[in-house]
Amino acid sequence: MQVESSPSTKDKAVKMLRAHGAFWRQNTRDSSRTLSMSGAVAEVILTWHIATSLLETKQQQQLPTSPSRSRRTAARLSRYCAYLVAFRPELLPDDREGTERIYKDLKKGIKAALGGARGYYLSSERSRHETIRALPAKLASADADMTVLERGAVLGKQLVNDEAGDGAVWEMLADVWVELVVYVSPSRAEEHAKGHEATLVQGSELVTLLWVLSTHTGIARPDHEGEVDQPAPALA
């Protein structure tokens, strides 16, 4: 799919995903506003999930119409990937304890931003998102020292600003989420292989079906820019 989003949003999407080894067809261009991010898969997922959710709720308030196909795709895959971080970290390629720690830190940050546990549990989704959307105005600068919540808020603000009603931003987001789901599915680690095999016995997960496909076709996930992981081990 050809991305038609504005240069600022497109640069962020390409730069941020390439920084985590995702395979992108677009050319990366330098941007002074490009967000720096660390290499943890959970951080990428949660940052983009926050941003996608902020854009979605903002548009629901402004344009309560039927969502486009790209918007539905992006929103559903965003929620699915966030679900994997929160409830199925063993199916993601990074260390399980690290993923759980990132998610725990995010919840702690959200509670702090909302004024404690009371604000976290009693506020509406709309109220929570409005509070998070206001975070970028309180930040001195956008840099690598920001938390996942802050990065998501900054990216979400950029997406809201760049959305012109032509669906281009949602097309870009749909591409982002499809790329992310495909990117996280291959893994050669024994821990993740066991997690996927157990899931196959219990039922099915989209990411596990993609893992099976990558395992049998020899598809590998790049760990870093220009570095490719080895193919996943064959199923017993």
UniProtKB/TrEMBL annotation:
- Pfam families in UniProt: DUF594
Q: Which organism is it from?
A: Oryza barthii
Please indicate which superkingdom the organism of origin belongs to. Answer: Eukaryota
Q: Which InterPro entries match?
A: DUF594 (IPR007658)
Question: What protein name does the entry list?
Answer: Uncharacterized protein
